[in-house]
Specification:
The protein is an alpha+beta fold and about 110 residues long. The protein has a domain at about 1-35. The protein contains 3 helices and 3 strands. It has helices at about 5, 20-35, 75-105, and strands at about 50-55, 55-60, 65. The chain has a 3-stranded antiparallel sheet, with no helix packed on it. A hairpin with a 2-residue loop joins strand 1 and strand 2 (about 55-60). The longest helix is centred in the C-terminal third of the chain and has 28 residues, at about 75-105. The radius of gyration is 24 Å and the shape is elongated.
Length: about 110
């Protein structure tokens, strides 16, 4: 085996060396690789969102700054909350439309 075949790619967690255990180093490497991936801006749709601080994200294209997760701009919990809000707003709109329809019936 040559030296290049024996070497493994350690990724960003290689800075820890032999410390902290294999699983912890792997988790850190996965989180950091996900954090540094391209993320889509919710405002303009470009792949230029960068992390500015813990939970603070900014689009390099349009300058839109927003909060999100510490390592991802959108978290699973945030997605479910957004879905719940959207559902509640849609229900209130349909109730308001139904109330307007009953108010506008012709009088006999």
């Amino acid at each position: 085996m040559s030296e290049t075949e024996r070497r493994r790619r350690t990724g960003s967690a290689g800075r820890f060396g032999a410390r902290y255990g294999r699983v912890a180093r792997r988790r850190v490497a996965e989180i950091e690789s996900d954090m540094h991936e391209d993320h889509v801006c919710p405002e303009c749709g470009s792949d230029a969102v960068d992390r500015k601080g813990s939970g603070i994200w900014e689009c390099g294209h349009c300058g839109y700054r927003f909060t999100g997760g510490a390592y991802r701009p959108e978290t699973p919990g945030g997605r479910s909350v957004r879905r719940s809000i959207r559902t509640a707003l849609a229900e209130s709109e349909t109730e308001a439309d139904a109330a307007e329809d009953t108010d506008s019936e012709p009088e006999v």
